[in-house]
Amino acid sequence: MKMAEVSAEMLEEKMRFAEKMLEKAGAVPLEINQKNREILNQRQTYLYENTYYRIDHAAFDGEAFLIVSCIDIEKYAAIGLMEDVEAIPLDASETQIEASVRHALGIADG
Amino acid sequence: MRISFDLDEVLFVNPQKYETEKPLRFPMNRLFPERLRKGTVRLIHELQNRGFEVWVYTSSYRTELYIRALFRNYGVRFDHIVNGARHQAEIQGKRKDPVPTKVPGFYHISLHIDDENSVIQNCRMSGVRAMRVFEPDSQWAEKILAEAVRIRRMEEQADKPGKEAR
Fold first, then answer.
1. Does ipTM surpass 0.95 in this model?
2. Rounded distance between C-alpha atoms, residue B109 and residue B106, angstroms
C-alpha cells in the first residue's frame, strides 16, 4: 500500500493494533520516553524480556510499513534511539501483523 | 566446544566479490543490508547440529539485538554474541594498557574464525586455535567444519587421562 494512500486514522489504527500485539505477547507499556512522545509524537515504549520495543512507521520506495524497533539499554530507549528489526506491510492482515510482532520479539511459533 | 566467528569480511561479505546467500525480502534488505557469505546458514546449523556452541565475536559496535535480528531472518540463532561494546566492558574494562581487539580465550572459545592476520596471531599467542578466512573459497565451510571436528577430538583426547585419574 502506498504511503500516500494511507490516512492518519488508518495509520493510528494499525499502529495501535501492533502495540496491542506487543502487549498480548507479554510486553509491558512504559512511560520512559514521555518527552519524545510529546515533542516528536513518538509512540509508547514497551518492555519485553529486558528489551525495549516501540512501533513506528516508514515508507520504502513509497510503500507503507509498520516498523518494530528495539534496544536493550534503557537510556537509549528513553531518548528513542533504537534498532529497526522488523518491517510489516501496512496492509498485512491482523494475523500477519501478530506473527511479525512475535517474530520481532524473538518468540518462535509452531 | 565453542567456536566463534568474526562478522565483517568473514560472515558479512561484499556481494560483488563473493558468492552470497540470497538477500532478505524487501524491505528487510533495507533494514539489514549486510550480505552473508554463501554457505553461512548451512555451516552454522551443521555446527550446532553436531553439538558445537556457535558464537559471534566481532569488534564492530552493531548491537547484539541487531545481529540477532539479522540472523533470525535467516533462521540462525547464535549461542552468544560478543560485540565491541561487550568486549570493551568485559575485557578492556578499566585496564590502562590496550588489550587485543579480540580475546576468545576469555570466553573459553576453542576455535576462532577471523579475516585479520593480527587477530589470528594474537589468538595463537594466547593458546586459542584460530583459522583465517579472508578471500573467496568455495570450500570455506567444509574446512571450518573439519577443523572444528579435529580440535574437538584433540580436546577430548587431552581430557581423557585426567578423567581416568579421577
1. no
2. 8
